[in-house]
Structures are given as structure tokens and as C-alpha cells.
Design goal:
The protein is of the alpha+beta class. The protein has a single domain, classed as CBS-domain, CATH 3.10.580. Helix content is 35%, strand content 19%. A hairpin with a 2-residue loop joins strand 3 and strand 4. Helix 4 crosses helix 5. The radius of gyration is 16 Å and the shape is elongated. The two termini are 18 Å apart.
């Protein structure tokens, strides 16, 4: 049996527009307890923003001036726009290998330049467990 990304990917996910502020991105990440948000413009997938991207530009303690900066800075200025993605027909093993080789924690699942899902480390683990034949997930 072939285990495909489509069987394990996240289908419900938040999205951001390139012009959204970093403050909005941070709120979405925190309130939804997620680590990755695809950036979409006119239904086209244009980038990915991660919790780590924001952490890298934020000091450990957010001060008032930082909040102002976050409110003035657009997502497109820090988003990753050269994103490795997969299709829903990609094998789970192949996707997991790609994540390890490229040191990435999330693969957007795309079809015709549109994002249809997210395949995260958690999804990869579930998929790999299913490959072992164990049903105890």
C-alpha cells in the first residue's frame, strides 16, 4: 500500500496576505497555536511564514517600539518566497526525506500554484507510523 501526503496533510489552515502586518501574523500563530502560515495573493501561493521567522527578528522581550515595528512591517518582507512544496500524490516517505535533507519542518502541498494543504513534521510522523503497519496512532 502506498502512503501519500494527501492522506495525512492538514486541510484546515490559516493564510496571510503579503500586505498583512507581522503583528497580525504573530497573533494568528499564537492564537491558533500553529507554527506555519502560507502567504496567498489572489489565490496563488506566494510564500510561507513561520514562527521561527518571527522569532529571529523579535528580541526575547517585545517592547512597545517593537510592537510598532511589527505593526508597520509587512509579511512579504520576511516571508520565505522560495519554498519547497510537494503535491498530494507525493509519497510520505519521500516528503519526510525531503524535510530531513532540507532541514524544514513544513512542506506546503500545492496544485496549480494554489495551496491545498500543509504537510508538517507531525503529519510526517503519523504517515511513517502508518507505514510500519501499526494502527496505534
Amino acid at each position: 500500500m502506498m502512503t501519500l501526503v494527501r492522506d495525512f496533510m492538514e486541510r484546515n489552515f490559516q493564510t496571510l496576505a503579503p500586505k498583512n502586518t507581522l503583528l497580525w501574523a504573530l497573533k494568528l500563530l499564537r492564537t491558533n497555536r500553529i507554527r506555519y502560515i502560507p502567504v496567498v495573493e489572489n489565490d496563488i501561493f506566494v510564500g510561507l511564514i513561520s514562527e521561527r521567522d518571527l522569532r529571529d527578528i523579535l528580541p526575547s522581550i517585545v517592547e512597545e517600539c517593537d510592537m510598532e515595528l511589527l505593526n508597520l512591517t509587512c509579511v512579504q518582507s520576511v516571508m520565505l518566497d522560495q519554498v519547497i512544496s510537494v503535491t498530494e500524490d507525493t509519497k510520505v516517505l519521500e516528503a519526510a526525506q525531503l524535510m530531513i535533507n532540507k532541514k524544514i519542518g513544513c512542506l506546503p502541498v500545492t496544485m496549480d500554484n494554489r495551496i491545498i494543504g500543509l504537510f508538517t513534521e507531525r503529519n510526517a510522523i503519523k504517515g511513517l507510523i502508518s507505514l510500519t503497519g501499526s494502527n496505534e496512532i
